[in-house]
Amino acid sequence: MDVYQAIYKRRTIRKFKQQKIDRKVLEKLIDAARFAPSGNNLQPVKYRIVEEPEEVAKVFEQVKWAGYIAPEGNPKKGEEPVAFIMVLADTNIRKAGYELDVGAAVQNLLLSAVEEGIGTCWIGSVNRDNVRNILNIPENLVISTAIALGYPAEEPVSEEEQGSIKYYKDSNGVLHVPKRALRDIIINS
Ligand SMILES: Cc1cc2nc3c(=O)[nH]c(=O)nc-3n(C[C@H](O)[C@H](O)[C@H](O)COP(=O)(O)O)c2cc1C
Fold first, then answer.
1. pLDDT tens digits, 50-62
2. Which pTM does this prediction carry?
3. Among 59, 110, 118, 167, which lies 20 to 30 A Cα-Cα from 24?
């Protein structure tokens, strides 16, 4: 798969097969994130793998899904992610301004997951205090976001935006994701 194929193929997945992801594969994805660009090459982004079923279930309780179509977009029983990767910023390395580094690193990870046949959902809506306690995350590590992972059990489609950017499910339960047209984002087109 070339980079463009992965970019266009990647969609946020919120329904997963209950099939474990090998730890080595999770580490491979994080290794791809490791090679992302970083301001001043400081590389403040760190990761906590969550793969033990009990821990996954606890973290699952602390995240929110698909706000535009809640609760319809929540993974149902038997469709939950099988792992999370918590994305952390080490404030001992960089006090503030690490968000762009996180973005670059996470996108590397999400695209690499496409290559591995793994679905992902990048989650900003996280109860960070609870997750810190559950996973015992030290204070110097800011909990930026979470990535839910699993082999996909849905195939969302993208389409050109027609008046609304809100994703929706059609009568067959397929998730549609509107993307703004190229002419609408290049300001001198
Ligand atoms: C920074 C960020 C935070 C997000 N937070 C959530 C979230 O809390 N819950 C969720 O279900 N999806 C979340 N998403 C996924 C977006 O809803 C999704 O990327 C968007 O609808 C476009 O769909 P696509 O990823 O398939 O292109 C987040 C995405 C980003 C980039």
1. 999 999 999 999 9
2. 0.97
3. 59
